[in-house]
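Customer escalation, tier 2.

The customer says the design service returned an amino acid string that "doesn't look like it belongs to this structure." They asked us to rerun it and document both sides in this ticket. The original structure tokens are below, unchanged.
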């Protein structure tokens, strides 16, 4: 465990779903290990985890596809 750099709470280690825009597409990577602040939801990743995320995204071998509704706030 470590301290959050934003609010200084103790972080909790858990697997999350990482969401990112990549080449104008919204992608999600599931089961990503992260330290997460229970107070402000800031997420922290090890450098090797970030490298693995980027490799998975660049290979474009998704395990499934989901539809996401899009709303516009006028």
């Amino acid at each position: 465990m470590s301290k959050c750099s934003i609010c200084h709470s103790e972080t909790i280690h858990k697997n999350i779903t990482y969401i990112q825009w990549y080449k104008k597409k919204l992608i999600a990577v599931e089961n990503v290990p992260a330290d997460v602040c229970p107070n402000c939801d800031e997420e922290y990743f090890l450098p090797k985890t970030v490298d693995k995320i980027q490799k998975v995204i660049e290979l474009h071998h998704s395990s499934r596809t989901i539809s996401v509704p899009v709303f516009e706030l006028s």
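Tier 2 assessment: The sequence is consistent with the input. The chain has a mean pLDDT of 93. Strands lie at 12-22, 25-36, 43-44. Sent an explanation to the customer and offered a walkthrough call.
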